[in-house]
Amino acid sequence: MSARLTALNLLLRTVGRPLLKRTKTPERARRDFDLAARWIFLGPRTNASRRVIAGVPVLDVRPPSASGDAVLLYFHGGGYITGNAASHLPMVGSIAGKAGLRAVLPDYGLAPERPFPAAFEDALATWNGLRNEGTDARRIVLGGDSAGGGLALALLAHLLAAGERPAGLFAFSPWTDLTLGGETLRTNARSDLILPVERIEELRTMVAPQADLADPRLSPLFAGFEGAPPVYLQASRTEILLDDTLRIERRLRNAGVDTQVDLWPDAPHVWQLFRSWIPEADEALDRTAEFVRRCLKVSIPQA
Questions:
Q1: In the chain, what are the domain boundaries?
Q2: Mean pLDDT of the chain, nearest integer
Q3: Distance between CA atoms of 270 and 281, rounded to whole angstroms?
Q4: Do 160 and 141 touch, CB atoms closer than 8 A?
Q5: I want to staple 248 with a disulfide (CB 3.0 to 4.6 A). Which of 8, 67, 120, 176 is the partner?
Q6: pLDDT of residue 41
Q7: pTM above 0.90, yes or no
Q8: 3-296 in CATH: which number?
Q9: Which regions of the chain are under pLDDT 70?
Q10: How many CA atoms lie within 13 A of 79 on its CB side?
């Protein structure tokens, strides 16, 4: 573990997690997250424009290295109540630049104002919009982190059932089971560096107040993935959502899916956001970009 990660872990444990534990409203959570994103989440200079795809506002990111027709469709994390395309632009812009492709980041509907299935419907609408613009399904890679990782997996299962197959999918610490059946919600409750497990049932109620929590559009752990493209997952061994990654890995493998999981021994939930601050984040994004290039069969972009 790098000295920088050690320092970050101390800061998150002593400041970040206590702050999340006492945050009273989604509005306050959004303000705090946006402030952190503005000052902490660093990224390369990236050409990004706002537009609307099938009624969903998106950031369309075109790094200088982007070439060809490939697209990364990326869903931001934030527990379905916070986060946005702009907050995740530095990290996603870095992946897109390293992989040499364009990225689209939807601002999908957030709870509690727009509870389930709003996020899923916006994700599907964005996919359909890209397809209607002429983008080949085989040239789209899905990605996401935390709730957005679960959303990407839910979309993948839906697309497979409809006869469409993206090029691949990656997810960072995806939230895949809103029934909260993962054992690490308990065993990693003390070791998680940022997420207070005491708030997760309250969060779930805001996200899906009247839903079947095993609905595969909400909890992709219960979805079918036969015929899926390659999937790459990253997670930390110390986070409460570790089992959400390990159990979706098993489900994917049981469906015959080419699945790879990289586990970091002591990193915060979605540490990849801290690119340029900690070397572990840069390494994780390098591995992700390599996976994306492999799915699309493209070479490393020239500097």
A1: 3-296
A2: 94
A3: 9
A4: no
A5: 176
A6: 81
A7: yes
A8: 3.40.50.1820
A9: 43-45, 301-303
A10: 22
